Amino acid sequence: MHPSSQDVSPLKKEDLSSNAALSPPFPKLELVNPGPVTFDQIKMALSRVEDPELHVDVMTLELIYRIRIDGDKINVLTTLTTPACPYGPLLIDMMRSSIMQLTTEVKEVKIEVTFEPLWQPSDDLKAMMGLL
């Protein structure tokens, strides 16, 4: 049974790690009703959205917590590297725009921001960014 398209409760860190196949950098994927785009197309669109400060895309940064397709409506639950991220509004607009450009059949893209859990880069991401 699929949750309703209105159910967008924030994910907890244990939700992300409970299923190894869906833990970061792979977001939790929910198909409520098949739509005009696939998860792979959405992930590809989001991988073109680069953080202007870090110069790394939002998929690689593991900022995407959930992607939900409900027919022609797409819901993305995301976080930012920090609640005070100066590029937050720009990143949200870029994510929405990138998904909307996939096809005219996508009628609504909702980008929700949560800080539960706070962004914590994985060890692989830290190594890639030279932080380890």
TrEMBL record:
SUPFAM superfamilies, per the entry: Fe-S cluster assembly (FSCA) domain-like (SSF117916)
Signal sequence annotation: none
Domain MIP18 family-like span(s) in chain numbering: 40-110
* Region span, Disordered: 1-20
List the InterPro entries.
Fe-S_Maturation_MIP18 (IPR052339), FSCA_dom_sf (IPR034904), MIP18-like (IPR002744)
Record-linked Pfam families: FeS_assembly_P
Q: What's the protein called, per UniProt? A: DUF59 domain-containing protein
Originating species: Candidatus Iainarchaeum sp
Tell me the lineage of the source organism: Archaea, Candidatus Iainarchaeota, Candidatus Iainarchaeia, Candidatus Iainarchaeales, Candidatus Iainarchaeaceae
